Amino acid sequence: MEAYDPSSSPNTVDEDSTATRRDADTTESARANRGWWDRNADEYQIEHGTFLGDDRFVWGPEGLDEVEAELLGPPEDLAGKDVLEIGAGAAQCSRWLAAQGARPVALDLSHRQLQHAQRIQDGSAIRVPLVEADAGVLPFRDGSFDLACSAYGALPFIADQVRVLREVHRVLRPGGRFVFSVTHPIRWAFPDEPGPEGLTVSASYFDRTPYVEQDDEGRAVYVEHHRTIGDRVRDVVAGGFRLVDLVEPEWPAWNTQEWGGWSPLRGNLIPGSAILVCERDDRA
Ligand SMILES: C[S@@+](CC[C@H](N)C(=O)[O-])C[C@H]1O[C@@H](n2cnc3c(N)ncnc32)[C@H](O)[C@@H]1O
């Protein structure tokens, strides 16, 4: 196995693990990521909690807010809608949805992330149901939701994208919308660095080999899965959806904050996030 240049890593790699590119299947990815998010949830919420807010709906490090984007539809139409948030983390987006009068359910794989959701809710008038589960096996009946959403939740971490999309399709009602954001595929060709060193292509955009951090015994402790733009479109269609829009948020002048490899410098030159707006295709 060829050593992977850690300067291209999407994370600060833990001292006792190494970064590489190798296969990682559904089970290994889920196990590794549950552990990683449980171990790192505290630090993640300390580092990003203020930016995310307790009840804001932010689509990614650019800071695009659902209030302005309206990708789930006009806020006034959200009232009374059943919404599933996948990979909800501390459920900030779900609390924003609840404040609009929607009925969100916040689902996440990580117990510790959901404990942060509970911590925020304990001090808030806005509470949403929290569900600990894997996005690949959604514990809901067919046709339970009008809308589904995911702001960088689950999809970047899952080996079998189509399986998740089919699950979301199953639990949505006919015509239901699923909007999800992920790292923009072009980012995988560049080192994950916020400065000038992150501006030179260092890997093939076409290399879909998962990014894996592993321990001394070769056990994955963190996994991310890369898809090209074309793969994303094909996955959405194979999952039973129509792609309505693909939003590439531009870096706004007000946002001077860096988030890992996302920064004003890089954000002004190349996209950092891709948001796929999909609707359940009920023509078949
Ligand atoms: C980057 S966070 C996004 C959460 C929130 N939107 C935010 O911006 O903080 C990714 C979340 O996806 C969750 N996740 C990863 N793999 C998952 C899976 N297979 N099923 C459900 N959630 C998953 C993680 O536990 C984590 O809370």
TrEMBL record:
Residues 1-12 have a biased composition (Polar residues). CDD domains: AdoMet_MTases. Residues 84-180 form the Methyltransferase type domain. Keywords: Methyltransferase, Transferase. GO terms for biological process: methylation. SUPFAM superfamilies: S-adenosyl-L-methionine-dependent methyltransferases. Residues 1-31 are annotated as: Disordered. GO terms for molecular function: S-adenosylmethionine-dependent methyltransferase activity. InterPro entries: Methyltransf_11 (IPR013216), Methyltransf_Superfamily (IPR050508), SAM-dependent_MTases_sf (IPR029063). Its EC number is 2.1.1.-. This is Class I SAM-dependent methyltransferase. It comes from Streptomyces tabacisoli.
